[in-house]
Write a structure and sequence with these properties.
about 350 residues, alpha/beta, five-stranded mixed beta sheet, 13 helices, about 40% helix
């Protein structure tokens, strides 16, 4: 049988999703976090195409240090594996893979173009899990979209349709066929082969960071505090490497009241002591989303690497109980507490 001349060619998709340096504002990071949160949850990416299982993900947050082409991703407790398996299922090995993965995920979650055949379109339209929730749409509809997601890629949709139907014999096409079929819950095909990517192990050390990194979760600690704790461990160990750096942080949800109070103190400490400026969505044109209604309030993290801290900063990492919001707000009222150096 002659091969369809319009069948998928991997180079077409590679060409049409070219990214620049992977630098994003806090709201753009919130946008990416929302795509990851939804797509990683709607399928169990650690299973084969026959499985219809899903995963529960309550939060995803992303962090970047301005000037570095690395992204750090964290989740609420116990949810990091679902994100790792999602990225690995696409075969994410570098920044461009990451952008392609999120681009295709977002397009199939949004479905602005109906280029699929009737059977697939009905399947997609009836798949309520494969749609952004009302809360997620607040980000998708109003936050600034990363540049690599912008544009009307009509030919790309045609290529995606072709690769879903026929992955061909090319390894890249067969892996992409598996990912797209898994995403839209299409039946198994012999041409689809699951990809493998770099984020198979969680990152514990900053020195070993690659382009895309998933951090291990911390028991009873929300995603944004996981990221900032990871940053604190490195900044307090190697302060000269981070002086005058700017850090961007954005998540699928706005921080809960407890985390917001903690982050406000953390920002003051980082800026006063290490000249590190942390910017969140509130610093990126404001954030009108309501505070996250967390099922469990985040506690303060306790990390051995931060045990040498003294004074008020040490109180951020005391693993205090979850009901200490008043304590955090009281600490915030004492400006002198946050002028202390690391070992003051």
């Amino acid at each position: 049988m002659a091969r369809n001349p319009h069948a998928f060619r991997p180079a077409l998709i590679l060409f049409r999703i070219q990214g620049g340096t992977m630098q994003h504002s806090p709201k753009e990071l919130a946008y990416l976090s929302t795509i990851i949160k939804r797509t990683a949850a709607i399928r169990d990416w650690d299973t084969d195409l026959n499985s219809s299982g899903t995963k529960k993900i309550s939060e995803v947050q992303c962090m970047q240090i301005v000037g570095e082409d690395k992204i750090f991703i964290a989740t609420n407790p116990g949810e990091q594996d679902a994100v790792r398996h999602y990225l690995s299922g696409f075969g994410v090995n570098n920044a461009l893979d990451f952008e392609r993965c999120l681009f295709m995920s977002h397009e199939l979650l949004s479905m602005r173009h109906q280029l699929f055949n009737d059977a697939v379109t009905v399947r997609l339209n009836n798949d309520t899990k494969r749609k952004y929730s009302g809360q997620e749409k607040l980000v998708i509809d109003s936050f600034r979209k990363p540049s690599f997601l912008a544009g009307n890629y009509l030919k790309l949709y045609q290529d995606m349709f072709n690769v879903i139907n026929d992955g061909g014999t090319d390894p890249a096409g067969r892996k992409l066929s598996w990912f797209l079929r898994k995403l839209i819950a299409c039946p198994v095909t012999t041409n689809a082969v699951k990809g493998t990517g770099a984020p198979l192990a969680v990152l514990y050390e900053y020195s070993k960071a690659v382009a895309v990194n998933v951090l291990d979760s911390i028991e009873n600690v929300h995603a944004e505090i996981v990221l900032l704790t990871f940053l604190a461990e490195e900044v307090t160990t190697n302060p000269h490497m981070f002086e005058n750096k700017v850090v961007h942080l954005g998540g699928a949800k706005k921080a809960c009241a407890h985390c917001a109070a903690w982050i406000a103190l953390y920002k003051r400490w980082m800026l006063n002591t290490y000249k590190v400026k942390v910017r969140t969505t509130e610093n990126d044109g404001g954030d009108t989303r309501g505070e996250a209604n967390a099922a469990e309030t985040s506690q303060r993290p306790s990390r051995p690497a931060l045990a040498t801290l003294r004074g008020a900063p040490k109180l951020l990492f005391t693993s205090a109980g979850a009901t200490d919001l008043h304590h955090l707000n009281t600490m915030a009222d004492d400006e002198d507490l946050w002028l202390l150096k690391k070992h003051a």
